Amino acid sequence: MQIQVLKSKLHCVTVTQAELDYIGSVTIDEDLMEAANLIENEQVHVLNKNNGERVITYVIKGERGSGVICLNGPAALKFKKGDVILVISYAEMDFDKAKTFKPWVVFPDTKTNKLK
Questions:
Q1: Any residues with CB less than 8 A from the CB of 86 and at least 6 apart, and which?
Q2: What is the DSSP letter of 8?
Q3: How many other C-beta atoms lie within 10 A of the C-beta of residue 12?
Q4: Which one, 10, 39, 72, 96, has least CB within 10 Å?
Q5: Other C-beta atoms within 10 Å of 96: how many?
Q6: How are beta strands 2-14 and 104-106 bridged, if at all?
Q7: 90 annotated active-site
């Protein structure tokens, strides 16, 4: 049996930009992507702690060390600069492997989006 489990999580990062005139996605600082084991074009769920919104989009690599978290396209209508968000990805795996799998969970500094 295959099940979906948490693979990666950026817990409480702050939106630095929201750009409506874009095809769509979330731009994430490459340092944060690496820490959370996220790759460019990977599907993610983005949860807004400020208003409860949740969107599904994909990752675009942002400038390393910039702290950028930018919601692009239609998601920019649900997220604004300063909102605190969670970025989550899931993986499908065998049920028995899932029992021992350890996800990558990262707790950056919420004010700077830098790794602690």
A1: 9, 10, 11, 12, 13, 46, 47, 49
A2: E
A3: 16
A4: 96
A5: 9
A6: parallel
A7: no
Given CATH 3.30.40.10, say whether it is the number of domain 2-92.
no
Interior angle at CA 12, CA 9 and CA 18, nearest 5: 100
- Would you say 59 and 109 are in contact if contact means Cβ atoms under 8 Å apart? no
Q: What single-letter DSSP state applies at residue 37? A: T
Cα dihedral value 51, 54, 59, 64, nearest 10: 20
Tens of pLDDT, residues 78-113: 999 999 999 999 999 999 999 999 999 999 999 999
5-51 confidence digits (pLDDT tens):
999 999 999 999 999 998 889 999 999 999 999 999 999 999 999 99
Q: Which of 8, 22, 25, 90 is catalytic?
A: 25
Catalytic residue among 8, 22, 58, 90, which?
58
